[in-house]
Amino acid sequence: MLNIDALVNFLGATDATREYVKEYLTIILFFSCFQMLSYYMEVLVKADGYPKLATIGACTAACCNIVLDYIFVIKLGFGIKGAAYATGIAQMLSATLFFIHFLRKKSILGFCKFRISLSTIKRTLCIGFPDFIAEISTGITIFMFNKVILLTIGDIGVVTYTVISYASNMVLNTMLAVSQGVQPLISFNFGKKDNNAIFIYFKLALKVVTVFSILSYGICTVFSNTICRVFINSNEVNLINYSIKSLRIYALSYLIVGYNVVLAGFYSSVEKPKFALVISLGRGLIVISIVLVFMTNLFGDTGIWLSPFISEILVLIVSIGIFIKQFLCYFNNKKISNKIKIIQQ
Questions:
Q1: Which of 15, 221, 263, 304 could anchor a disulfide with 319, C-beta 3.0 to 4.6 Å?
Q2: pLDDT higher than threshold 50 for residue 66
Q3: First CA to last CA distance, the chain
Q4: What is the pTM of this model?
């Protein structure tokens, strides 16, 4: 809040967008604590055995955001300020709902006095850090793309990327939902050392991701015209056509991203955070940065939209290599040793 102007400049705001960015950030940062609490407690609510309540809380926040957006932006004409207030109030509502849950007697988890254990904190941070990287990778990617797009294409490219970002966030969040949904099941069976159950849930996650990947690519390719016209004025024909072309190229990455997200989640679930970190850092920062610069210099604006696809493929190759070397061999050896024990008996 004290360095809002520096933050606005760091995010790459232009003269045309500077005041809007500053106005939005000033408000949304005030509500940031509620956003963090809402996200954190949503995970705890699911761990507490109330997944339906977590869904209700998330849906309530989304519906509240939509309704308040309509009231503040359309009816009252508050503009970007209204959108920021709508988002902040919605997050505050869901955080309050989850907070009340932990005050109830029905909840297993609750507030209590605790002792700080450095070993527990270290273990938690190690396991959770890859997921942290995966979560912030969206923001990092958007920031990098905006910088490169402004230098290469200009404001028109930023508008196009804004449309693509909305679609990409929906796809990525869907993949994260699959990964986060299966992680507790894999972790539980990892603790039981039930390798068969681990692979059943892992295969199920891959199957679900495959379906969503194909659907996401198909929808964004077939209905790219409709998607772009939702966000862009119909009179901007050239911009719409360019955005359609760019979205179809970018959508290739939707065929791959889910597998990397699920594999990273799998490694975290079996307490192999360093492998999860390799994937998260690769697709969220290191590989995408290198590929983005390389592809832009080689193919111009087409290279920008193609770089996520190339990046995800490279990371997936590494992910599969790690999986084959570390886990297939491990589980196969376990099966062989179990068979030997049975024969000896």
A1: 263
A2: yes
A3: 69
A4: 0.75
